[in-house]
């Protein structure tokens, strides 16, 4: 099996308050079949053996569904490969002798905890501000009890694919959270169950998004290009539309 | 404070609300540019047609028309600039830099909006002093007699034409991203409409660009209007 020798430029930062810096590491004899996270695991084992502090990074499922493996690879969240998370990235996408820059997701609303680990609880607070439906949680209703047009069901499902990874924020030149917020709002706003709280949801989530210190969207669609779930910026247009309508209704009620 | 003013405050403080204001004022300016260009192109119809058009603008609604338009445009311009500077500052503050920066698909025009915009601002100030206030005595005398002759003389200065070309290039770039943005910000862009919107935006920017630069180029390079 071919092996790769790589140079890594990695962001190291002691804790939230300390200054960070780029450190250089050699990643030797990396199998092309390894995932990107496994490559870091290999480097870390050597660091531990040498008595050095391993590179800290977030991960959990390692199969593209949890959204934890946040890191920016050569300036692009989850790497320049489309529609995948870092854990789904394979080392065969790199060539021998390459230098790879690895940094945490950068946004003021995602403070660095340590090395590549960031605190993305601002997303949780946005969900808490309206990204839910208040219903009696009894037994599941019959599937055909509420009829939903196919187009709406599909749109809701596309939006619901968001795993809350934060790559959209990290890729955005303005660290805007619009793709995430619009996906979460659009998911529920497309469904009949979401109608009752629609205005409240849109106004609440956008207010929380602004309070968390995310930037403003400038319609550059960097978010859409890096999203591992390929969420469309169409949902941002819908959020803008829903926000305008909700504000108008709010002003007269 | 009544509930309705409160909702408006919240709207104007929110990122989406401010962007909608930027889009609406931008739209007003975009529509103005189309009208302004159509009028200006009358220059090629000859001195009489152009001067008659200028006369019409200044006497429309007993001279009130031009002032209503000026005040409306100034308001849109100031509001547009105020909010775009505010948004741009917030955006710069929200994002620490990467040691290794990369851009996947954002076009240059979209990343230079504040700079193309500020160049347009500088140009507009110059343009108004040049052709509206007429700080140049010769142009002022000529302008009172015939706006057509004033424009012909005004564009015989190569420095003026160079600045004009730079500003129009910035305007073209601003509009290429800006016009498409209006649709997205107002929530009108979807998978179905994305293609046509991009086309309309680029076509509009190009027409505005070619239309506006045709006048100074015709005068400076081809001596248009100087035979008489
Ligand atoms: C004839 C003059 C102008 C026209 C027709 C115009 C048009 C537009 C349009 C249509 C947009 C897109 C709005 C949206 O995001 O939906 C825009 C955005 C913008 N304009 Fe202008 N503009 C003009 C002058 C200026 C000036 C003088 C500035 C100077 C500060 C400026 C700065 C900006 C910036 C920074 C944006 C991006 C805002 C954002 O996306 O957050 N513009 N403009
Ligand atoms: S919209 Fe895409 S990039 Fe953004 S948080 Fe959701 S899955 Fe991640
Ligand atoms: S570790 Fe779960 S998505 Fe990558």
Distance between the first and last residues' Cα of chain B: 65 Å
- List low-confidence stretches of chain B: none
Number of domains of chain A: 2
Q: Please state the structural category of chain A.
A: alpha+beta
Give the CATH H-level superfamily of the largest domain in chain A: Alpha-helical ferredoxin
Based on CA atoms alone, the radius of gyration of chain A comes out at: 20 Å
- For the largest sheet of chain A, list the strands in their spatial order: 2-1-5-3-4
Beta content of chain B: under 5%
Query: Per DSSP, what share of the residues of chain A sits in E-state strands of 2 or more residues?
Result: 5-15%
What percentage of residues of chain A falls in helices of 4 or more residues? 25-40%
Largest sheet of chain A: 5 strands, mixed
Number of strands of chain A: 7
| Strand segment tally of chain B | 0
Show the largest interface.
A-B, 53 and 49 residues
If classified by CATH, what would the architecture of the largest domain in chain A be? Orthogonal Bundle
The assigned structural class of chain B equals: mainly alpha
Oligomeric state of the chains in view: heterodimer
Question: What do we call the CATH topology of chain B?
Answer: 3 helical TM bundles of succinate and fumarate reductases
Whole-number tally of structural domains of chain B: 1
Distance between the termini of chain A: 68 Å
